[in-house]
Amino acid sequence: MNSKKIIATLLLCCLMGTILSGCQKKNPDKQINTTVLETTLAKESVIESVATTEPESTVEAVTTSEAITFEEITTATTAMTVNTFTSQIQNEIKGSLSARDKINSITLENKNLLVSVSLEKNNVTLDRFSSITDKILSIENGYELWDSITVDFGNLGYITKSKDNIVTDNKGSHFLVEKADIVK
Known about the structure:
The protein is α+β, with helices and mostly antiparallel strands. It has 2 domains: 3-68, no CATH class; 87-181, 2-Layer Sandwich (GMP Synthetase, Chain A, domain 3). Helices cover 34% and strands 25% of the residues. It is built from 3 helices and 8 strands, in the order αββαββαββββ. The strands form 3 sheets. The chain has a 4-stranded mixed β-sheet with strand order 3-4-5-6, covered by helices on one side.
C-alpha cells in the first residue's frame, strides 16, 4: 500500500471515530451498528456509509472539539483490518473447498487465526489444511495480525502451525504437514 493510500485510510479512520463518538454522546441510549459497506478495487476498501439501528437513518457528520486518541484510532483501524482480513480469507478459501465442504467460522483470537470447517470426506484433512493455509499465506495484507493458524475439522481433529513452521521453496510459502500433526 503506498503512503498516499495509508494516509487516506488513517484519515477515514479518524473521521469514522469522530462520527461514531459524536453519535454516541448525542444519543447514548441508541445502539450504533457500524455496518460498513465496502467497494473493493484492487484489494483496497472504500467506506461508503455507516448506518444506525434505525432503518432509514444514516449517521451525520458531527463536529467535536474533543481530540481522538491514538489508541482509539488504532483500535478502530485494527477492527476494520481484522474484519477485512477475515472476509478476504473466507473469499479466498472458498475455492479450496469442495462444493459440500463448509466454512463454519473464521476468527482471530490472541493472534491465533482459527478457521473452522466441516468436510464432506473424512480423509482429506491434510489436503484441506494445505489448500486453506496456502491461500491464507498468499494474502498480502494481514500477515502481521496472526502468529499461528489453526484449522479445526470438528470431530476429525485440528492442525495448528505457527509462522516459524512456514517453509519457502520453489513452490512458494507453505506449511509442511503430515498425519501426525492432526490433534484429536
